[in-house]
Each structure stands twice: as C-alpha cells, then as structure tokens.
Specification:
Largest sheet: none
Number of helices: 11
Mean pLDDT: 86
Strand content: under 5%
Radius of gyration: 20 Å
Low-confidence stretches: none
Length: about 250
C-alpha cells in the first residue's frame, strides 16, 4: 500500500466531519479567540510602556497588567498545543463519537514539552534549509512532517519522533510533497482569503477590534482539516510500513 493523495484528502475530511470533529473545532475556536485577548492586551500595554501612542491601535485588548496578560497568553497557547495533541490522537485513532479520556492526560507533560521543543527544532531546520538552499528546506518539511504525530500518538521524545518520521516518509517524499502542496496551497489560500474578508467586512460593521478577533479564528477549521489529512496520510504510510516488515 502506498500513499494516495485523493484518499488522504477524503479520509481527512471524514475524520473531521463527525461529532468529535465538531467538538474539537468548537474547542479550537474558543481557546483561539480567548488567546488573542491577552496576547493583544500584552502588545498594547508593551507599546504604552515604551511610550508609543496607541490611540489609533484597534486591537481586541483589555486593560490588564503586562505580567498578567503575558502569563494568560502563554497558558492559553499551551492550551492550544495540548488541544493539538488531543486532536492528533483522536484523528489517528479514528474515533468519531467519543474521545478516550486517556488522550487528555496520558504522559501529557513530557509529550507537551517534546512537542514544543520538536516543533521549534523542526521550524529551525526548515528555515536553515530554505536559507541555504530551497531543496533541503523542502526535504526537511516533508521528511519530518510526522514528528509531532509520533510524539503525540506513541509518546515518543522529539529525537525519536524525527528519526521515525524520516524512516516512515522515505520513498514517499514526492507523493507527500504533492499532498502537502495541495493541502497547504489550496486550503491555505482559501483560509487566507476568508481571513482577509472577515477582517474587512466584520471590521467595517462591528469595528476593527472585533474584525481582527474573528479573522484570527476563521482559519482554525482549515488547520483542523490539515491535521486530519496528515493523520490519514500517517495511517496509510504506517500500514504500508507494517506490510513491508511482515512480507
């Protein structure tokens, strides 16, 4: 069995279009919207403390001490990362109606730490590869795309996640690149257009602050679809890997 782009996209949609997908989407929207308020509040407070005028800055912010805003933003950002781990576990597990309780708590502290460190290193590898030469950046993006999946699903540390992702994707780089190109270019384009339209339309009707707040979460459903598509591709490749081992 090899990676199929069409079935990966169809499988990704089916993993989202169910009760669990809806619950996870609502959770993303709530936490994503809540995170923006302390984040923008910290930005506005930081500008004010630096002496920069903020009278024309239309951001969804509240008046709060900088330390409080920064702490709340960090906690909610960790909440989004935790939700991503739960989402990956749910999608890879193929659960549609109920999310197993262990997905919320199983080894969650080390998994969370490894996902953050692994994600940071993954970003650095892509950046360095793209700066030095475009091809290494693309290879890093494709070869290590399942690092977070291994960390979340199999409780791997980020080093093992990188190694296992490399092994899983070898021989499938072109098909994976095609899939990611369709997902990132297609879904990313739609998400970008909707985000811009939401900011303009809602901003003109309800104010720029509300427009920025809503535009910041309108792309989250597409991020969920990308995770679901990656989960489907991961499942296909892992089954193919198992078939090769047993044959």
């Amino acid at each position: 069995m090899t990676l199929n782009i069409g079935s990966s996209l169809a499988g990704g949609i089916s993993r989202v279009a169910n009760r669990n997908g809806l619950l996870l989407l609502v959770a993303y929207l709530l936490i994503g919207a809540a995170w923006q308020i302390p984040f923008y509040s910290a930005v506005v407070t930081g500008l004010e403390q630096s002496g920069t005028p903020t009278g024309n800055v239309a951001l969804p912010a509240i008046d709060a001490p900088l330390a409080v805003s920064v702490s709340a933003a960090i906690l909610l950002l960790l909440g989004l990362q935790w939700l991503t781990i739960v989402t990956i576990r749910t999608f890879v597990g193929g659960h549609t109606q109920e999310i197993p309780s262990e997905y919320y708590t199983r080894n969650i502290v080390p998994v969370l730490l490894n996902s953050l460190v692994g994600g940071l290193i993954y970003g650095v590898l892509m950046f360095v590869g793209s700066v030095l030469f475009v091809i290494p950046g693309i290879i890093a993006y494709v070869a290590f795309i399942f690092t977070l999946v291994y960390v979340a699903v199999e409780d791997k540390n980020f080093i093992a996640g990188f190694r296992n992702s490399w092994q899983l994707t070898r021989g499938h780089w072109l098909r994976l690149f095609g899939l990611l190109l369709v997902v990132v270019a297609g879904i990313g384009l739609i998400s970008g257009v909707l985000t811009a339209m939401t900011s303009l339309v809602v901003g003109a009707i309800a104010g720029e602050g509300i427009g920025i707040l809503l535009s910041g979460v309108v792309g989250l459903p597409f991020s969920l679809l990308i995770l679901a598509t990656l989960a489907e591709a991961f499942t296909q490749l892992r089954e193919s890997q198992k078939e090769m081992v047993t044959s």
